[in-house]
Amino acid sequence: MTQQTYVTKAEGERMKFNPEYLQSFEHESSQPKTMPEPTLVKSFLKLPEYDKMVTLEVIKFLHQFTFATRDQLARLLDYKGVDPVGLDDNLARMLEEREVNSFFLNQVGQLDETPEDAFIMYCMDFGGLAILKHFTNSDWLTWFTTDSVRKSGLVQKYLSTGEFYLALLKAQGSALRGFKATTDLSFGHRDIRFSATFEIMQGYTGHPFILESVRSFDLPMDWRDKIDNKLVHFVCSPKHWGKYYSKEPVYIFLCENEQDALETADLFYRRTDGKENFRLITDDQVKLGLDKAKFLKYIPNPDNAEEEAPKMGTLQAVKSSLLAGGAA
Fold this sequence. Notes:
The protein is an alpha+beta fold. 38% of the residues lie in helices and 22% in strands. It contains twelve helices and eleven strands. Strands 5-6-7-8-9 form a five-stranded mixed sheet. Strand 8, helix 10 (258-271) and strand 9 (278-282) form a beta-alpha-beta unit. The longest helix is centred in the middle third of the chain and has 21 residues, at 152-172. The radius of gyration is 21 Å and the shape is globular. 34% of the residues are buried.
């Protein structure tokens, strides 16, 4: 039996694949091979209004979340009130104009041909940056070709962050503020990267959240190292988190399944000396929609005070009305 050496559509849709695979791009990302900026701008201005809306929404999402699937982009348009019927035609045009690039994941990297059942993902290209510079309100935009070059493990993390954002956008709409994917924070002599930060508004009050996507391949070593070397110093110090927040944020850990969620929670709870301001959610629950999803609360083992070797606690299903929509 031949070993599968690339990520198939079925594997990609489950967001479960080998974390050590490499990218094979549809085309080389190259500034000289991209149309001059004035030409791109003129071409964009000639598009019908619908195509302009689709183009801008797609490029803005890819700039923020780095990667996206076709299905994620279709749902993004739908949640923004834009009919996704013309998405495929626009993606084809954007690929040709090098505003976006596409890729699949495989064992060896760049290949000449794309298998018919390969899982295709999208990222930004040089032309997209030109469009953003001219047709968004931001006057400070950066993008490098290396931003889109990642091993499949990080691709999976970024896709899961985008998936959570889409579920949150659908549930919260305008109450969702300031969602920033791949957030870097500095404190003391350390830097820490979170999957995302955001706020949920309730009246005039903003409730801060920090999202961390913890994948199966992170457990236990990488997750424990991040807690010990980074998280504990931020989470347990009002001086450090207070540099960014007026009140303590709630942490959301996005995990592949409940077993991973339990291990993630247990390590975080014990190594932060019992911090409880966190909840967990699994990929499957996110896909259900946050209005139906169950979040998970960690319940420590009550016998641990009398045990030399602490025992893992349990998870309890809870609702999070603030994240799912409705009154807190």
